[in-house]
Amino acid sequence: MTISISEIFHSIQGESSFAGWPCAFVRLAGCGHGCRYCDTTYAEKPGTEMETDEIFEKIDEIGAQLVEITGGEPLLQKEVYPLMERLCDRKEKVLLETGGFLSVAKVDQRVHKIIDLKAPSSGVCNKNNPQNIELAMRSGKAEISSFEFKIVVADREDYLWARTMLTDTGLAEACTVMLGVVFGKLEPERLAQWILEDRIRVRMQLQLHKYIWPPEMRGV
Ligand code: SF4
């Protein structure tokens, strides 16, 4: 069983409630969703076919306590499901970062799921999979949920979309919702101001790795 891998690297987790922790990233190749602000378009290129044991070797070399499966869109490759199960069995803390177009229903329950909700300016807002919100709403209290959602906003329209969606669904009461800016498109201060004015229940985040390293740098 092989998985098409774009890159495996060691970095600082930059975009979730785990931001700041050293992490081994396994980036699977392939996506095709075409989000306007995609910053990993290189993951669209064909990857290197790797056996699960080879992937484990690389993760062991890195030696981080935290492992993140990302992409591209990692859920496009069915082999990713047993990979995540085996990682959880090895007692690693496993994060999954997914674009949110595919359901996470079959993902091992031990995996912490970071799911994008694409705002209008991404051009793919209509592809958000509603089942992921339903699953999160049924999953229990925010403090113990293995779900978290991530929204990046480029302008006021995106922010208002997020605010309405959160009001309509009650999602922020069921799990953590991270709200950030599209890097270089919206000043973080403006987003902070809107969040504080409206008193919405979200956690603001910046893409930490883009402040530590050059924003266009790969493998971080
Ligand atoms: S889902 Fe992620 S990897 Fe795929 S196009 Fe959108 S931002 Fe890029």
TrEMBL record:
Subunit architecture: Homodimer.
UniProt binding sites for S-adenosyl-L-methionine: Y37, C38, D39, G72
Described purpose of this protein according to its UniProt entry: Catalyzes the complex heterocyclic radical-mediated conversion of 6-carboxy-5,6,7,8-tetrahydropterin (CPH4) to 7-carboxy-7-deazaguanine (CDG), a step common to the biosynthetic pathways of all 7-deazapurine-containing compounds.
Keyword Heme listed: no
InterPro entries hit by this protein: 7-CO-7-deazaguanine_synth-like, Aldolase_TIM, rSAM, rSAM_sf
Residues annotated to bind substrate: I12, Q13, G14, R27, T70
Protein known as: 7-carboxy-7-deazaguanine synthase
Gene3D superfamilies the record matches: Aldolase class I
Domain Radical SAM core: start-end pairs: 18-215
Pathway involvement of the protein, from the record: Purine metabolism; 7-cyano-7-deazaguanine biosynthesis
